[in-house]
Design brief:
By secondary structure, the protein is of the alpha+beta class. It has one domain (about 15-135). Helices cover about 45% and strands about 15% of the residues. It is built from three helices and four strands; from the N terminus they run αααββββ. It has helices at about 15-65, 75-80, 80-85, and strands spanning about 90-100, 100-110, 120, 130-135. A four-stranded antiparallel sheet has the order 1-2-3-4. The protein is rod-shaped, with a radius of gyration of 28 Å.
């Protein structure tokens, strides 16, 4: 009977068990990190939309200063903030309640679809500070 000589050389590389342990650890980290990342992105997008709406409000106030009234409808107001109307995350809707009062509602879409709508109401002509109705974005 012939025996092969035993090699004293160690083999190089990883065993299947070592690779599987790494895969499990990476999977656990991803399962914890992804929901947190998604919430962070939704919060960031909501704040970005709020800033865009405030720019829109500023443009509407400029329009009112020149014309003594807000735009008549959503189509007329779109020209003041085209970037808001092309957003991938919110669909805005402008409503003029009177010559001196308007409401902007931003309905979520895309990755923001699980969030609530945001609503900004101007004042009534005497109360020009405006107010937000967005208790909880996401």
């Amino acid at each position: 009977m012939m025996f092969r000589p035993v090699s004293q050389q160690r083999s190089r590389g990883f065993t299947l068990i070592e690779v599987m342990i790494v895969v499990v650890i990476v999977g656990i980290l991803a399962a914890v990190a992804y929901p947190s990342y998604t919430r962070y992105m939704q919060s960031t997008r909501a704040e970005e939309a709020k800033a865009m709406i405030m720019d829109y409000v500023s443009a509407l106030e400029g329009f009112r200063a020149k014309n003594f009234a807000y735009p008549a409808d959503n189509n007329a107001a779109k020209t003041l903030a085209p970037e808001l109307y092309t957003s991938d995350f919110y669909t805005p809707n402008y409503t003029r309640n009177s010559q001196h009062d308007f409401t902007i509602t931003a309905a979520p879409k895309g990755m923001m679809s699980g969030c609530q709508s945001m609503q900004y109401s101007s004042g009534d002509g005497l109360n020009q500070h405006g107010s937000w109705d967005d208790d909880k974005h996401c």
